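Fold this sequence, please.
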Amino acid sequence: MAFPYTQTGQKISTVSQGVTVYGCFGMGGLNNPSATEANAQNTVKFGFTATNFRVFLVSNTLSGNLDITVRRNTAAGNCTVQYLTTVTGEKEDLTNTDTFVSNDISAIEYKAAAGTGSSQPQTIQTVITPATTQGITYVSSRPGIRAFSTNNLVNPIQIGGGLEVALTETLTQQTFRVAGTIANYAVRCSDNTRTASDVTCGIRKAGANGNSLVTFATGAEYKQDTTNTDTITSGDLINGHTTLGASGGTFSQTLQTFQFTATSGTAIQYLAGGQSAFPVSTTRYVALSGIPTQQATEANQQSKIYQPATFNLMRTFVGTNTLTATSTITFRKNSVNGNQTYTYTSAEVGFKEDTTNTDTVISGDKVNFQIATGGTGTSITVGTWGVNATYPAGGNSNFFFFH
């Protein structure tokens, strides 16, 4: 089965003239690419073929070209798109493919020619066809580095975002609605000045440590747990964590990643994570995966469908709500309201899910979330978003791949 991975690039730093930077490859956030490729690299643990490499560029004042390319084992892959000076919008490589095998190293390169100006990629997407298994790689990434220094503290981290941290763990917990197994959990540390081996990173399930775990001594390194796994059932609350002990110094992390394999069926789940406060009386659009941000232009957040599918179980978690009027969250298809929808009334918080309605899509459709906030009060903060998609057995699914 093939899945279109989609990654969205909310909060990405701009790519400026004469600069080459690197982002992560996987279902997660397109966040703060790094000039050091190692900071963005992830070791894949299942074989797959990537096709239909698609980019949406929201702004571009570059006086030269911008090339965005899949990277494999620290070399340019085949899938690539090029933007000429000042060109924006959607581009898709319909010709080339890249085949990865287990233990290959993946990344994405953004290369801007010398000159003037800057650009901002917003969405990157590719169709993933696993070689033998229904595997999904979820990545929480910040190649530009997330630094931790507070001793004796568990830092909860959202799945599929940009290493977004919240001291209230409920704001980071994703409700999984597909049963399966988490394996090959990995973390890349770009710098570590801790004075003792007291940093642990791992999976959290329902507010407790899971089995997947890596520990760090001093110095920068990439660590992957290839032994332990976590069994997930529908309804489990999942997040990652980075926990510091009592010594001193800083631990700098650029990505958290794991492979998720469903127990059965053809459903996958798209997860977006990162606390975002939506202001009073506004309509904003959110991509199906990545880091939710304030996007008033819907095209910036749309993901393209490549095979028929049925979307269901749209869900969110609201942490704070100081609005005094009702806000509505809706699934969108081709810039029109879909069937899945629900509301948060005045000051209402917590988890909500549409367990009744579904939305069917066909190849070429474009989908995203929408939030229309109430007309009085201050703001509403959404911590996590999710939705399932079920594809026909033996067909290609749409893996939305957000870097």
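Residues 5-11, 395-403 have pLDDT under 50 and may be disordered. The chain has three domains: 3-134, 140-262, 267-392.
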